[in-house]
Design a protein that fits this description.
Length: 219
């Protein structure tokens, strides 16, 4: 109890002020030279901000030109599909509407549920099938389901889609690290991923938010 009396609470309660202060702390705790620069650093810094986990510095992976490809898609107005409702809700329309972009999750689509039951596959896998066949999304945001990422890679190899960006960050212990390793090995795809078991819908959504903020600034 005596230690708690020495804790100093910062007088900072406005949402934007808290975020600005948080990003400033991250910048100060990761001094130059940083492992990431420019717009890549803005993405990684947002992921650290989301998790308070500085291990992101060692785990985030970018393919060549992935950030540029994602920014180009957002500037042009794009369709984004997520693998969870959590990721969809984490990408607010106040950011997407000014960019003429949409965000959709098909996990609760009745056809997805029906096909998953009929085939014994996951809803995440079936949702990717429908998204590719009907929507041709520009950006896939996968933060939870390795089966979604694995299916997307299969459909890319079959020539059925070529996304402008894959945010591949499934989390967990079964095929999460393995599916991301397959993504990391690709030299033909624009991707942002997190090596190993860590990931999640909040991180996947935060990646899109970081890119959207760059575009909204006019860059």
């Amino acid at each position: 109890m005596s230690g708690e009396k020495n804790v100093k609470v910062q007088n900072c309660f406005a949402p934007m002020a808290i975020e600005e202060r948080s990003l400033g702390i991250i910048d100060s705790e990761v001094p130059e030279p940083r492992p990431f620069q420019g717009k890549q650093w803005e993405v990684v810094r947002r992921l650290i901000h989301t998790t308070a986990d500085f291990e992101m510095l060692d785990l985030v992976r970018f393919s060549d030109h992935a950030v540029e490809s994602g920014l180009e898609a957002l500037r042009a107005g794009c369709h984004i599909v997520t693998d969870t409702q959590m990721a969809r809700m984490g990408i607010p329309m106040r950011r997407m509407e000014p960019l003429n972009s949409t965000v959709q999750c098909l996990m609760n689509d009745p056809r997805v549920i029906e096909q998953a039951k009929a085939t014994g596959n996951t809803r995440a896998r079936m949702a990717v099938d429908i998204a590719v066949s009907e929507l041709q999304p520009d950006i896939f945001v996968i933060g939870n389901a390795p089966t979604a990422l694995l299916r997307l890679l299969d459909l890319i190899d079959e020539g059925k889609i070529m996304p402008k960006l894959i945010v591949g960050m499934p989390v967990g212990f079964v095929n999460a690290a393995e599916s991301k390793a397959l993504l990391e090995a690709r030299t033909d795809l624009p991707f942002i991923t997190i090596h190993g078991r860590k990931g999640g819908s909040t991180l996947a959504a935060a990646t899109i938010n970081a890119l959207a903020e760059i575009v909204l600034r006019g860059e």
